[in-house]
Amino acid sequence: MSLVEGLSKIAPNGMAEFQEKMRQQLESSMHKELERLLSTGNGEEAKVSQKDFDGFKKLFHRFLQVKGPSVDWAKINRPPEDSIQPYEKIRVKGQSDGVSVGVALSKLVVVKLNGGLGTSMGCKGPKSLISVRNENTFLDLTVQQIEHLNKTYNANVPLVLMNSFNTDEDTQKILQKYTHHRVKIHTFNQSRYPRINKESLLPVATNLGLTGENAESWYPPGHGDIYASFYNSGLLDQLIAEGKEYIFVSNIDNLGATVDLHILSHLMSQPSDKRCEFVMEVTDKTRADVKGGTLIQYEGKLRLLEIAQVPKAHVDEFKSVTKFKIFNTNNLWISLPAIKRLQEKNSMDMEIIVNPKTLDGGLNVIQLETAVGAAIKSFDNALGINVPRSRFLPVKTTSDLLLVMSNLYSLEAGSLTMSEKREFPTTPHVKLGSSFTKVQDFLRRFESIPDMLELDHLTVSGDVTFGKQVAVKGTVIIIANHGDRIDIPAGAMLENKIVSGNLRILDH
């Protein structure tokens, strides 16, 4: 049990003062340790870290005040009907609003969350530099999308990348290749916060360095850090001075998150005193999305409810597709002046996510994080829009990668759209086993990507390879037992088949 857990378990009667004293001691120890860490850095490094630590101190202070779950389950209500609008209504309305596309685009900035590494897919460096389609990386596709928009409408929509200390150096090197593209690219770095020992609640870092024994001592504190980092970088003020009004924020690995002109037009057509300051794109939940955050009405405000905030007794209810029908895609449209106002008033309210980790040496630490969508309750006239599933196409695993590399999707100007040749719009369910986890292994096992136009479900487990021009249709399950290997021959057509055991077909 950590000190903060111990504090919250002490009986309330007569102990409030003792609890407060303990909190003050913990906070004082943390501040001293942060000062000591700052003294180990050089001028510029210490200056940047000082800003980061100021943000961390606020988060740590709030963390010490938290008592129990951050939501009272009995107070949770479904959002009012008008607080989540169907996309179709926005689309039809957007066409009749009379705002010119050029004018609307002149007010827009595209922001991509680019802090993540490709380690979960067996790749080194930023995830955004993984090739996903025809040798194009996530970043290439993003640049192509915005360049196409700028050329088509004679616009100047800039791209902003929120990097982390893990991704910044590699990203900066690669940005040079886009110098002659019609997209202005800006970057800023999210904060670098210290991981803290679960028992002592003090930083595990010995100095400000990022290498050696300190390599695991730091973390980027979740995408909720965008507001403070964007503001502190000076870029927020610069873009407001250029006349920009909204940012469209999304994860760089969500290939469905393209600029939607109907949503933008809807935002720009409202009277300035009733401007919607925050739009969250949500979509209908399926069994695959049970862990995704959902929108609720709580104490009169639209609020994001994440699984980490749900009391254990209600987790199954939270996962239910019947009670909570939609989930957050993390495609967000946010007012720049509103971010500035909330940052300057220090009134951006986001729940703390306590993320436990175990370091390589076995030490248990915690990371204090926030989520960008959690700030929805701080903004005026916030709105959810229930968008088509096609706007949520994340690539988190090689199973997702197989889908987007296949003939299910066609690629045009950086945007992927479901092929017209597929007779039904649902995405097949693909589950590749551990032999396919790393991108390098995945690519080695496919001589070419199978035809998946008529696929419903594909499960592959064990040592399996695919020859050229294989087609999979309906439900296909391929399981190679331990020690066996299955080679699917070139030109094979598998429809509603289960293949198991050992199948090695040699060409003659």
UniProtKB/TrEMBL annotation:
<feature type="binding site">
    <location>
        <position position="253"/>
    </location>
    <ligand>
        <name>UTP</name>
    </ligand>
</feature>
<dbReference type="GO" id="GO:0006011">
    <property type="term" value="P:UDP-alpha-D-glucose metabolic process"/>
</dbReference>
<comment type="subunit">
    <text>Homooctamer.</text>
</comment>
<feature type="binding site">
    <location>
        <position position="190"/>
    </location>
    <ligand>
        <name>UTP</name>
    </ligand>
</feature>
<comment type="function">
    <text>UTP--glucose-1-phosphate uridylyltransferase catalyzing the conversion of glucose-1-phosphate into UDP-glucose, a crucial precursor for the production of glycogen.</text>
</comment>
<dbReference type="InterPro" id="IPR029044">
    <property type="entry name" value="Nucleotide-diphossugar_trans"/>
</dbReference>
<comment type="similarity">
    <text>Belongs to the UDPGP type 1 family.</text>
</comment>
<protein>
    <recommendedName>
        <fullName>UTP--glucose-1-phosphate uridylyltransferase</fullName>
        <ecNumber>2.7.7.9</ecNumber>
    </recommendedName>
</protein>
<feature type="binding site">
    <location>
        <position position="396"/>
    </location>
    <ligand>
        <name>UTP</name>
    </ligand>
</feature>
<keyword id="KW-0808">Transferase</keyword>
<feature type="binding site">
    <location>
        <position position="222"/>
    </location>
    <ligand>
        <name>UTP</name>
    </ligand>
</feature>
<dbReference type="GO" id="GO:0003983">
    <property type="term" value="F:UTP:glucose-1-phosphate uridylyltransferase activity"/>
</dbReference>
<keyword id="KW-0548">Nucleotidyltransferase</keyword>
<feature type="binding site">
    <location>
        <position position="223"/>
    </location>
    <ligand>
        <name>substrate</name>
    </ligand>
</feature>
<dbReference type="InterPro" id="IPR002618">
    <property type="entry name" value="UDPGP_fam"/>
</dbReference>
<feature type="binding site">
    <location>
        <position position="127"/>
    </location>
    <ligand>
        <name>UTP</name>
    </ligand>
</feature>
<dbReference type="InterPro" id="IPR016267">
    <property type="entry name" value="UDPGP_trans"/>
</dbReference>
<comment type="pathway">
    <text>Glycan biosynthesis; glycogen biosynthesis.</text>
</comment>
<dbReference type="Pfam" id="PF01704">
    <property type="entry name" value="UDPGP"/>
</dbReference>
